[in-house]
């Protein structure tokens, strides 16, 4: 059988007529002058990168916000394979007291080369880019497109501020998921209206290619514009939260931020956050968690201050162990250390039935400490 | 006794010799050598001499010179004839000259690649050239992948990973593709049938991507002995390939013994168990500490034989630890350990599944015993290749089971020692397979107008894909417009993506024990079927047709089930006809519509029918290619009644089904046969033999050319069988084909053979 006939047997579908779409790309440019507001935050002429670079660009924290290119793409799929096309590439940048968004829409895949050349011209002007998950997704897709179109690009060499990672660290515990829109809704107090669900976006584009009808495409372009706009506000938000924990909508955000900052060894800000939670003290569990983390941070810097926290938390096993260590090694009050160790052992015995292996480990550790302390005591009394 | 003494004792052992259908002695052979090519880099020459190689076998030198002259080359020589050096030398040499060189090594399975790498790594170390070799497969940690992509000179992988992981992400592999000099395809004969048809398309995609990056790699293929290595290689890579097939490696004296267990019941044609016979034969070698490997077909048989032989060893006052099983699922470390102990003589007998016949470094042994024909001759030759040393005598024994194919092969020794009848057959242009790979290719790189992928009519297929919304034509290119990743949904190992998953729910929540293709499921996995998997019986509790799942539970019952299928065949197109005195042979496309109707419960061993049930499943339709035999044969004239003639046709079909795969190098399940006493359109007795895959994979086409050869062999199988009225080893039991089934089937064949003109 001829292939034609076989194909006909495979499907009785008749080919549809194809619409005329001009094979170009289109640029959508919008100027957003200061002051610029989204939800409860406002950007104005003083807006800068400030604190956030300590986390995202620790090697070069003093850069100007005007040197950063914001970007986000809309693609025909979520796999990073070579068949995924970024049909909408959006940029944002600050210039002359306003935020400009410039979006490149691929009206026809055949115009990709021409479009990428223009896109590359913009990328070439910058050394810094900011995105939301651009490291994991958008840059891979774009690099792949550059290779496929044989365009050489600096994209991979740019310094990348990917806001997904700090946002995840700050907000996931509180919001459940750190998606851009969750943050807008839950933290920025901004709700999008008539926004198109991300999962539908590829199909809107496929439909556009088939029908030429661009009605729904506008919703995608608007979605992308808001995504880029959000990026700037998220920087504002993170800066504000880092400097001023009282701005935090909930202790969970503060605590997450504090832990993250502590891990990043940005201890000044971390301490402020921990103390804020302890002082606010609406939530006992979080306060205890904050005390524990703060005490471990202080342990490195000012162990005496840390010991005050442990005294406050003496019903917690970790605090008992830390205190025992503190008195054994720092204050050298072996008798006090022994007394605390015994308290710890009693506590373990009480908890024993309820808890698990981890407790066994701590118990053994305490036992060992006790034996050592007893030896030390004996030696001390002899001399 | 040493091995030569054992040979003498076996020869004088009547109870052994009466079951030997053939004893072939191949005299020792000296090797022929060539010097290492002068223009190979000194570093590499030095490394070769460090590892004890001062000259090459002639076939190695020949292959290497072809490859270095830029010719695609396929090397077809036996086990242990130094095939890997044929590609490792050119690769290593090229790297020393140009360190940007990249090569891709493809092995059919994951386990193989590990063992084969050893030699290359060793060579690399000795040269100190710093070649970077990495395995890239499903087990490669994500964190290591980037480094492999960027710096790996030799990337060792399998076709599945190339298909799903590498090609769709080729931009990440741009360094590999830009500098791709060699592609090595080892164990080429594994790429046949469905798998081979897929792999040929993966290679089309590979070449397409390589072209995009401006490279044009040389292919080096290696294969076990088959009838058509050059043809298969050329079909796989669609380029001219030079064949190197003469083996110049030295070998000691080799004895091949074909052993057929004695018939214990003439009425039913039942033979003594081949497993038990294998045990008995193995005892001779265990007693004398002769290093022996035994290949069996299932893991269960490995365990069974191991246990039994350990007992025997104890009775011989030997340490039972000299007997070890060696099968898939053992960890690499356990395997290394067994290999080491074998070399050191702490183990003398290894019992292995045939899955491990390839590429294991267990050194050379004295004796191989193959229990049951392993399905293909090339597979047998690879197993027997395990026994043999340069300077001493070796023995390879094959013990036949009572399966028809075993019975045929054991009586046709010429196939073991003469030319292989086995052709590796593929059909890369099977429309369904082709379309799937055109999709993958379009995802990887947009097609240009006029671009050819396998067939001249590529544009038509692209248009078809556009009509279905999968591609979008714009400018002069076809762009991928689906949100999915096509390679993810396409398995290289099956014809359709719609496989049934078999879930064992004996222990909740259940576990997946296997898969079955769409067209076999209704026959074998219908509700209340007894499904046998690895020798264990399962009852099918439910077949969820929509979700493609069969739920089974372990049972132990004394029957099996046999489904009856109502099949109707329509001829769609006739491509080729041959006219004979007996009638007509046609090749073309058919549509097979089949509905399972009922199933019978058949008692084990006695084959009594002990009940039946209805099967309610939808009709299946499959278009495929077929050969059909139309007979000018009036059975009534010959005094055969209708019932007997149905039996004769069925018996003929049963034998055909077993003989054809020997030539087509396929599993008996890959083809199907339907017989008509009166085919509705022509009213003539007609036998359809068709590819059991949608759109065909080229198997039945080959039958047009070898029809008479196969027919002669069907006749020989029936006449050679000692049973009286038919048995499962030939036409099938009398219960199935009637009391005169054997005789009538034979007469039918004789009729065809005597009426060629």
From TrEMBL, chain A:
Q: Which residue spans adopt a coiled-coil conformation according to this UniProt entry?
A: 356-383
Give the stretches traversing the membrane: none
A GO molecular function term, named singly, is:
nucleic acid binding
Pfam families named in the record: RNase_H_2 (PF13482)
Q: Which terms are listed as keywords in the entry?
A: Coiled coil
- YprB ribonuclease H-like domain boundaries: 69-238
The record ties this protein, via InterPro entries, to: RNaseH-like_sf (IPR012337), RNaseH_sf (IPR036397), YprB_RNase_H-like_dom (IPR038720)
Protein origin, superkingdom: Bacteria
Entries under PANTHER family matching the protein: EXONUCLEASE-LIKE PROTEIN, YPRB RIBONUCLEASE H-LIKE DOMAIN-CONTAINING PROTEIN
Protein's UniProt name: YprB ribonuclease H-like domain-containing protein
Automatic annotation (TrEMBL), chain B:
Q: Name one Pfam family in it.
A: MZB
Instruction: Identify the SUPFAM superfamilies for this entry.
Output: P-loop containing nucleoside triphosphate hydrolases (SSF52540)
Database matches in InterPro entries: DEAD/DEAH_box_helicase_dom, Helicase_ATP-bd, Helicase_C-like, HRQ1_WHD, MZB, P-loop_NTPase
Organism ancestry? Bacteria, Bacteria division TA06
Helicase ATP-binding domain residues:
64-244
Is Hydrolase there in the keyword field? yes
Name used for this protein in its record: ATP-dependent helicase
Location of the Helicase C-terminal domain? 280-432
Q: Which one GO biological process term can you cite for this protein?
A: nucleotide-excision repair
Gene Ontology MF annotations? 3'-5' DNA helicase activity; ATP binding; nucleic acid binding
Q: Which UniProt keywords apply?
A: ATP-binding, Helicase, Hydrolase, Nucleotide-binding
Q: Which SMART domains match?
A: DEXDc, HELICc
